[in-house]
């Protein structure tokens, strides 16, 4: 029920973001439905992580299956922080009302998408901690952060997407090798990873404090 309640809250936030987009459409202004698609993609790692967290509660002895699920999660996880980069599309006209609406709308989409990613990270990390040693789970967490940043780089700069893993795996490998020595790719990956890590530590600290507080006062 805890997980379902979280999903419901995130769904409400997603619908609120879409509502901002509907207001944009109401003004008969050009719209970009890729935002809605990207928001949808941010739900995939969330659902995958929810499944991993739920199934490991009942079957904690499933390391191979969890690794396969984790690979799928990692393939789509960069879609969550990806929407932060959509803020680069903002055009500034201080006398234009839609400038401020677009600012709020893009931030809302990025915020909800990021929430989806952070919650999915918490659930998949909790699943790792159940199945693997705690140290192993934490190492997997740390490694996943810059990898997510690199995934965002591939999407924004190299114009790749998660489905290319299936449709064009060769192109993924080509871009991977071309980007290894790319300074922008390195900085981009580390900074997105650092951002996710800091936000996740805040989320983790709040949740752990609540759990310990509840246990102490039971």
TrEMBL record:
Keyword 4Fe-4S belongs to the record: no
Domain of life: Bacteria
Keywords: Membrane, Transmembrane, Transmembrane helix
Transmembrane feature ranges: 7-27, 33-52, 64-84, 104-124, 136-154, 185-207
Protein's name according to its UniProt entry: DUF1361 domain-containing protein
Species of provenance: Dyadobacter linearis
Source organism phylogeny: Bacteria, Pseudomonadati, Bacteroidota, Cytophagia, Cytophagales
């Amino acid at each position: 029920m805890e997980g379902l309640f979280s999903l419901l809250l995130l769904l409400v936030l997603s619908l609120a973001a879409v509502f901002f987009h509907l207001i944009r459409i109401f003004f008969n202004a050009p719209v970009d439905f890729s935002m809605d698609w990207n928001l949808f993609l941010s739900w995939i790692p969330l659902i995958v992580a929810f499944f991993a967290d739920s199934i490991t509660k009942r079957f904690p002895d499933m390391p191979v299956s969890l690794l396969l699920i984790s690979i799928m999660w990692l393939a789509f996880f960069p879609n969550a922080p990806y929407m932060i980069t959509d803020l680069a599309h903002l055009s500034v006209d201080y006398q234009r009302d839609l400038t401020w609406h677009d600012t709020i709308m893009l931030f809302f989409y990025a915020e909800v998408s990021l929430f989806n990613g952070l919650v999915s990270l918490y659930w998949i990390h909790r699943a790792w901690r159940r199945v693997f040693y705690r140290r192993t789970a934490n190492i997997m967490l740390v490694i996943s952060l810059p990898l997510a940043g690199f995934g965002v780089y591939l999407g924004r700069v190299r114009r790749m997407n998660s489905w290319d893993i299936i449709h064009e795996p060769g192109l993924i490998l080509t871009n991977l090798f071309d980007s290894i020595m790319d300074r922008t790719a390195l900085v981009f990956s580390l900074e997105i990873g650092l951002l996710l890590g800091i936000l996740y530590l805040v989320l983790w600290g709040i949740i752990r404090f609540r759990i310990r507080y509840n246990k102490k006062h039971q």
